[in-house]
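For the sake of transparency, this paper describes our internal protein records without simplification. An entry from our holdings is shown next, in its original layout:
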Amino acid sequence: MLKVTNLEAGYGNIKILRKVSFEVKKGDIVSILGTNGAGKTTVMRAISGIIPIWGGTIEFNGVELNNANSEQIVRSGLIQVPEDRQLFGEMTVLENLELGAFSKKARKNINKNIDYCYELFPILYKKKSQLAGTMSGGQQQMLAIARALMSEPELLILDEPSIGLSPLLTKQVFDIIKEVNKNDVTVLLVEQNVNQALSLSNQGFVIENGTVVMNGKAKELMENKQLKASYLGI
C-alpha cells in the first residue's frame, strides 16, 4: 500500500532523513521506532506532504506522492494524527468530528461515521457538546483519532499516540488501534513505547540518526538482543 524508497528530507539546510526505505502492506500495523530526534516524525511529515521531499520517492497505492500537497494526500485516503493532536480547542467534540469529514466522499457518510466514532469512543458521545480544549489528554487523543477516522482513511498514520498518557489510557488507545485495524484500516504507528508498539504490529522499522538501522517481523524484533539492550533496557 505504501512504499517509501530512499527518502531524504530535512529542515532549512539540515538533512534529517538519509535514504529511508520501508513498505507498509495493506491490512498491516507497522511500527516506526526510535528515540527522540531519530527522525520518526520527519518521516511522517514528509509522507503527509507537510514538509518537502529532498530525494527519493513515496508511493501510495501505486501513485507517486512526491509532488502532491496535503489536501491531495488526504483525498487519496492517507490520514495522519499528529503528535500534538491539533484539535480545535474552542470547538465542541461534535464540531471537531464534523470537520474530519473533509473529502466529498466522507461528507456523504458523515452521520454514519459519527455514529461509528461514538460506538468506538463512547466517552465522545457523552461529551459531544464539550469544548475539545477542556478535555483530558486521553480524551483529546481519542477525539484526534476519531476525527481522522471521519475522513475514511485507507492508511492511518499515528504519531506518538501514547505520549503523555497514563499506562491505563495508553492500553485503551492501543486497544482502539487494534479495533480500527480490524475494520480494514491499515496503520502506520510511530512510537517510543517499543514493547507495546511491537506487540501490536506485524512489522517494525527502527530509525537512528535519520536512517533505518533494523527491520523485520515484530515478533522477531522483540527477541532481538540489540533492540532489547538499546530500547527495552534488557
